[in-house]
User: Which sequence fits this backbone?
């Protein structure tokens, strides 16, 4: 895919539409905004399509610091094309197909060069603004600044992203499928490759079969896991899960007197080799850990508990060999690993199509919130120009 932009827009502000959230929990309003040109190291993107993630919902609901910044432009899972670049940007050019990503990857700092995916390019975090200087690139129709959302803000026809938060991908990928690799699917599939390093023949238990949980199942399938157990209160998730490799299903509400951990232990001859918590519940994190295999079981936390509830584990359980790790973005280094996932999709090894359950126009963006809140969708693609 290639797009041409009139040269007169480079270096100048662009007026466009955005879905603005004025107050926590309120419907988004389609407003005209002004998007500033990119500064050094930044890129301005024309968003082609975006989707809604549970992280957007969590922050949209929140009225407490440090999560509550309003008015704000949400959205962080998207695909777009480069409209213009700031100084010192050489990695992409106008017309390139790109994915904005929350987890930055500058490729130059110590952390990017070694283990983990925690980029330390910027000394201070500004989740509500540009990471380089803590200022906004958005103004509303009255000239007032609008807050960014975790360095992406894709619920706008144009956005500005630091190059550390941007990945160039093959134009062969349909943009709606590419969009999914911007966050949720990459988190789940990536966790099986990076954070857990699931081996062929191993057993996997997944707590929560939303998009991330199903992506874990897809990743475990690709890695050759022998048994993939999905744990969810919604019985409909088993049939959905089968499309992504789930072999067994456990409904916690139907376990009777048996604890979930005992059911998992019986199904896996002592405990699952790998457990993934994909909801963001401290109690489920404990269940996942307790369901892992003594001596070598590994529990990967992918969900975020917005309440900050403490997780209590007896030191002896760690001493015996079990371990528990957290993994932002599945442990993926975006610039290195997303192109690998793109290639797997192009080679028909990775199922992306099954995650798309709905498609809507940008003007109907609030319907995406309703669908996700009602549990009716995995990913709803929001088209900017349709």
Assistant:
């Amino acid at each position: 895919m290639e797009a041409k932009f009139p040269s007169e827009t480079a270096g100048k502000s662009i007026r466009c539409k955005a879905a603005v959230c004025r107050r926590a929990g309120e419907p988004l309003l389609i407003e005209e905004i002004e998007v500033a040109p990119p500064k050094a190291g930044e890129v301005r993107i024309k968003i082609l399509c975006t989707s809604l993630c549970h992280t957007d919902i969590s922050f949209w609901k929140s009225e407490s610091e440090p999560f509550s910044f309003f008015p704000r432009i949400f959205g962080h899972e998207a695909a777009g094309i480069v409209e213009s670049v700031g100084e010192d940007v050489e990695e992409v050019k106008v017309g390139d197909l790109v994915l904005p990503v929350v987890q930055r990857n500058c490729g130059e700092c110590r952390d990017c060069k070694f283990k983990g995916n925690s980029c330390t390019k910027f000394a201070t975090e500004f989740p509500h603004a540009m990471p380089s200087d803590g200022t906004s690139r958005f103004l509303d129709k009255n000239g007032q600044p609008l807050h960014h959302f975790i360095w992406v803000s894709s619920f706008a026809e144009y956005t500005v992203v630091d190059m550390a938060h941007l990945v160039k991908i093959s134009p062969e990928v349909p943009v709606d499928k590419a969009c999914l690799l911007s966050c949720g699917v990459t988190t789940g599939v990536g966790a099986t490759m990076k954070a857990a390093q699931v081996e062929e023949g191993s057993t996997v238990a997944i707590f929560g079969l939303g998009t991330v949980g199903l992506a874990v199942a897809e990743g475990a399938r690709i890695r050759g896991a022998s048994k993939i157990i999905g744990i969810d209160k919604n019985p409909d998730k088993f049939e959905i899960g089968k499309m992504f490799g789930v072999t067994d299903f456990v409904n916690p509400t139907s376990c009777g007197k048996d604890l979930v951990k005992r059911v998992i232990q019986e199904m896996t001859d002592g405990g699952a080799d790998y457990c993934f918590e994909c909801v963001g519940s401290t109690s489920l994190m404990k269940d996942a850990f307790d369901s892992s295999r003594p001596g070598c079981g590994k529990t990967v936390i992918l969900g975020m508990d917005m309440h900050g509830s403490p997780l209590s584990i007896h030191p002896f359980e760690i001493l015996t060999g079990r371990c528990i790790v957290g993994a932002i973005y599945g442990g993926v280094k975006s610039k290195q690993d997303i192109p690998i996932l793109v290639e797997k999709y192009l080679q028909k090894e990775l199922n992306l199509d099954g995650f798309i359950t709905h498609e809507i126009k940008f003007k109907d963006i609030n319907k995406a919130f309703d669908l996700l809140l009602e549990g009716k969708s995995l990913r709803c693609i929001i088209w900017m120009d349709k």
The longest strand covers residues 42-51.
